[in-house]
Write a structure and sequence with these properties.
- By secondary structure, this protein is mostly loops.
- It contains no helices and no strands.
């Protein structure tokens, strides 16, 4: 089925997938995990974070959260 794509603006694409129109399937080619404490990844203007205690446990009992092997 045809699709109509209107005006768009892409500032940047870093390792992602950009599709225009119809697509049969989309599968990721990479995955990552980030461990950060409370308030560590806040972005923007005039951020005020008040954290009394922050602890990050990077232990993950899973072998693979999102396998990328055998993706088409």
């Amino acid at each position: 089925m045809p699709s109509i794509v209107g005006p768009l603006k892409i500032n940047s694409v870093g390792g992602g997938v950009v599709n225009f129109g119809d697509s049969f399937y989309v599968s990721p080619k990479s995955s990552s995990k980030t461990n950060a404490g409370s308030g560590a990844l806040n972005t923007g203007d005039f951020i005020c974070t008040n954290n009394g205690f922050s602890s990050t446990n990077p232990f993950d009992p899973d072998i693979a959260d999102q396998p990328t092997i055998a993706n088409a």
